[in-house]
């Protein structure tokens, strides 16, 4: 039985994640080596060493979640504490949080930082997927099947927005919208839900307009229109220079000019600009193909999965990776205003990498169940008599 489970894992998906993570580690070193010395006075491999440790921790988390039966997360013993801990973590930021980049979004844990909002993305995916999967029999009863799960979504987005981090709050909201569209509820209820949401959010936005429309955010909008005519366009102009300098083959690994202090924090949000400059179109296409494969493979898994919970999980996780990738790439290329969203698996950051690894572990586990059912369900009397998840749970010594 255990051999059948191992054969059912989607190794192409695992390889894509591993390749992106290793490539990201290499590019973090290349992009940060000068900045670490010039800006912070660290050793040139400071951020590389930290990201290497982040990658080890993330790898362990990935393996755990890939082995952990995803259906166990339907249990209120796991779901309810997860939701409450996420809200407590967001609320605690206002008391114990560390401010950086005009937002109080991090807990300072010695030499490391923890960003709770990154994990809220995954919690929202798990919670909404679980609740709407349980409510399938009455998913179109607006007051009973549609609205209740969204109370958590509203609180999570509100707490993140107050930090203020409107970019992350927006991502969480869009991820939730994708899950809602895939949940099976009628378009009538979706329209009603959207109208109700506007009535709730609009007054809050008017009250918080001074925090929303700050000089920095207005400056980013002006820079988006014409980055060469404002000081706020400095990042974007240098990103253009990096993107344009690489050409087809690039200047060579480690030979970026823009990372020499011209492009601030090149190892985080603008790491793709460094990739384009050093490795050219080939390096960019390598990243885009792997990210695109993960997103499309995740959506395919969601469509093939017969279990509503697994299907919504796969769609939510792949949507999250796709949305973040689009926002990062569109921001550095001037398609949309800059929002400070990291590129999945590539940009430096422990919280982001850990959350993505947890999410990909869940996606791989869902994929394993889909493949197992397709290959082995009904091939023996033992498999015919009992559901797939019961067999797997016993193998993993997990009792639901």
From TrEMBL:
Entries under InterPro entries matching the protein: Cell_cycle_FtsW-rel_CS, FtsW/RodA
Keyword terms: Cell shape, Glycosyltransferase, Membrane, Peptidoglycan synthesis, Transferase, Transmembrane, Transmembrane helix
Origin superkingdom: Bacteria
TM spans (from-to): 12-33, 53-70, 82-101, 113-133, 145-162, 168-185, 190-208, 279-300, 312-332, 352-372
GO cellular component: cell division site; plasma membrane
A GO molecular-function descriptor: peptidoglycan glycosyltransferase activity
Enzyme type, top EC level: transferase
Reaction catalyzed: [GlcNAc-(1->4)-Mur2Ac(oyl-L-Ala-gamma-D-Glu-L-Lys-D-Ala-D-Ala)](n)-di-trans,octa-cis-undecaprenyl diphosphate + beta-D-GlcNAc-(1->4)-Mur2Ac(oyl-L-Ala-gamma-D-Glu-L-Lys-D-Ala-D-Ala)-di-trans,octa-cis-undecaprenyl diphosphate = [GlcNAc-(1->4)-Mur2Ac(oyl-L-Ala-gamma-D-Glu-L-Lys-D-Ala-D-Ala)](n+1)-di-trans,octa-cis-undecaprenyl diphosphate + di-trans,octa-cis-undecaprenyl diphosphate + H(+)
Record EC number: 2.4.99.28
Compartment(s) of residence: Membrane
One GO term (biological process): regulation of cell shape
PROSITE patterns assigned: FTSW_RODA_SPOVE
Membrane-topology annotation of the record: Multi-pass membrane protein
Pfam family, one: FTSW_RODA_SPOVE
Summary of the function given for this chain in its UniProt record: Peptidoglycan polymerase that is essential for cell division.
Membership in a protein family: Belongs to the SEDS family. FtsW subfamily.
PANTHER family associated with the record: CELL CYCLE PROTEIN, PEPTIDOGLYCAN GLYCOSYLTRANSFERASE FTSW-RELATED
Protein name according to UniProt: Probable peptidoglycan glycosyltransferase FtsW
